Amino acid sequence: MRLKITDGTVNYILRKDTKSKDDLYALQLRYSLHGNTPVSYMIGKSILQENWDNDEKEAIYISKPIAKKLAPDVNFNLFLSAHGVAEINAMLSDIELKIKGIEDRFRMDGVDYSGSDVIYELKNMMSGKSRQKIDKGKKISVVDFIEGNENENKGKLTESTIKHYTTIRNMLSDYDTLKKKVHYTHDAGFDYFNGVALFMVSKGLVNATIKKRLAQLRVFLDRARKKGYRTDESFRDFSWSEKETDVVALTMGELKKIEAVELKTERLSKVRDVFVFMCYTGLRFSDVLNLKRHNIRGDFIRLTAQKTKDLNGIPLSNKAREIADKYIVSDNDLVFPIPSHQKFNEYIKEVAELAGLTETVEKVRFSGAKRIVKTFPRKDQVTAHTARRTFVTLSLELGMKAEEIMPITGHRSYKSFKRYVKITEKRAKEALLNAWDK
User: Fold this and answer.
1) Which CATH code of 1.10.150, 1.10.3470, 3.40.50, 3.30.420 fits the domain covering 142-237?
2) How far separated are the first and last CA of the chain, in Å rounded?
3) Which residue has the higher pLDDT, 327 or 434?
4) What is the pTM of this model?
5) Cβ-based burial of 339 (10 A; exposed 0-12, middle 13-18, buried ≥19)
6) Which CATH class is domain 252-436?
7) Quick one: pLDDT at residue 121?
């Protein structure tokens, strides 16, 4: 059994909820300081429970005859060899030495530290990242750091991102005013996040917005730490649940109504054309706004997305090509004449109303545990972003696979894309029930 060499308490356990198909369990480190709640870290090793001595907290060697008696159905090759046992135990001892070194450095720097601080540094060491020296005399308020970060990167940020940062900064400033306290990065931990979240609930913000703002706040605190400011790493343990809301997308019938409706003004006709073009290509409003003639090459659009800075290749369907050709003949380098985002959303609602999208719909959202139900005409749900959602949803319904659509739309992960799969499944269910339960 290893002697205790750290100030905090180090414990290793087998996570029983991580059992693999081969009966392997992940080894987890739990570190607690001064009796506080343990902070966990998965060390990246998995073993059979027969190879683990839970009393001594170390791996043990099991010979083949004994292994056959303990676990007759388990392939012996999954058991640790004597070398494998020695390797894992050496790793556990090395982790404790690293933790002791981290504790010692914090003390030498004169910095008060938490269990979260130690595990944060351990993760950096295990991944090969260099340690960021923390200056105990260097401090800054959360609000001031966000403002400084915004000013420092102003030339690199889009107008919408600056607006998003300003909204968060103003909200946190209001929270400071309410609490009659300036919150610094070193005391913006779990309790601070909880207080800010409840403050947003009191302002009537829905869970999706709260979660998004807290995620951005985490990014700011990560940047603060990298710049040498102290942070309370317990903020990483805070989470805010968000009940996923339905994606608002047009059905094929609704899209055809918008395409077919007779419009008497050029203003609405142009907006309708751009909206339909986005429905057929999946482009974001910001990308259509900046779409230039040279971006259209043959049957493809090739452009760098404003939001992600990724170079995307979007195939043009016959309908999309027809709309583009209608406008590309002008002398303007930009393909489409587009009003501001606000005006576009205002005009496309007019188009949707004229197209008959007037039935009453219900939207359910949550603020904390409070369920908020709003009803309004379907036309009020139609915005510029509805077009992109419509492209994805209808593409799925028409038989395209997720992996075929994601390169077109620029979705980087299936996690963000799967919401569209859910709405497609929901529509399929509704269609079946309407057909069979009449």
Assistant:
1) 1.10.150
2) 71
3) 327
4) 0.51
5) middle
6) mainly alpha
7) 85
